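Long-time lurker. I teach an intro course on protein structure, and each term I like to show students one example going from raw sequence to a predicted 3D structure in token notation. This year I'd like something fresh instead of my usual example. Would anyone be willing to generate the tokens for the chain below so I can use it in lecture? Attribution to the forum is fine with me.
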Amino acid sequence: MIRGIVGGIVRWWARLSYLWQLEVEGAKGDINAATAMRNADEKRKLVVQLNSEADAIEANVTEVEAGEDVRKSAPEYQESHAAGKVRGRARFQERAGRRHSDGRGKARHGEAGKRKRVELRTGGTDVARAGW
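-- Reply from a regular --
Happy to contribute to a lecture. Here you go:
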């Protein structure tokens, strides 16, 4: 008799917990669907805003390019730009020659650089024996 009552309560509790579990899963699905809808609406609004900003930027770029073309076609720009190119190239060649002629680059990266690295690694003892 007690077994029958306990068994009935157990079956009733199992059925109730199963239904509870189904209801919880259904509620979670509803919450997730509502969140997805809200996020999709926000994304749609953001796409519209970004497209309008991109159109404004594109219009500004076109306007700046048109102004740049007008400026570059002016005779004053042509003359100053040609003189600047020649002057700039001479300065570059002068700097390049000076950089390579003073010998600092080779000392930093050549044999002296290797010697310094070996001294740091070994404490300087093997440098004289190695013939560096």
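Some talking points for your students: The mean pLDDT is 77. Residues 74-108 form one domain.
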